[in-house]
Amino acid sequence: MGSVRMLEGIFGNASAEKVLLYLEQYEEGYATAIARTFDDLSLNMAQRQLERFERAGALVSSLQGRTRLYTWNPRYPFRRELRALLRKALDQLPASERKRYFTERRRPRRAGKPL
After folding, report:
1. Does a structural domain hold residue 111?
2. d(CA 71, CA 106)
3. How many CB atoms are closer than 10 A to CB 76?
């Protein structure tokens, strides 16, 4: 994933960076959706990173049916600064990568709307 790896050295590995960039873009997510977004991110790697960030206090999770949904912990003392860093990294991505990885449809298509 080429230039998405801007923060890999800071976060320790590329999978951690991808998970956090995904959450910055979409506010919340679950491991399967995050892993599906990136070509080289397995479900197991996504789950491990989400659990790691939850243990560190940056994320919180809740069960939505049988799915564990992760979001930013509003009580995390560095949340604002971490998200600002991630937002800056997203803004620096080439348009082609931003479109490829960070433009997922978040709501259903209107009934009757042509494809």
Report:
1. no
2. 15
3. 17
Q: In which order are the strands placed within the sheet that holds 67-72? A: 28-29, 67-72, 59-64
* Domain count for the chain: 1
Contact 51, 74 (CB under 8 A): no
Residue 24 token pair: 């910055």
pLDDT tens sequence across 75-87? 999 999 999 999 9
Q: Which two tokens stand for residue 32?
A: 């399967």
Within-domain flag for 115:
no
Task: Give the pLDDT confidence score for residue 95 in this predicted structure.
Answer: 87
Q: Scanning the structure block, which residue is given the tokens 């209107």?
A: 110
Residue 108: inside a domain, yes or no? no
Sign, CA torsion 96/100/104/105: positive
User: Residue written as tokens 């992760």?
Assistant: 70
User: Of 34, 29, 101, which is closest to residue 68 (Cα–Cα)?
Assistant: 29
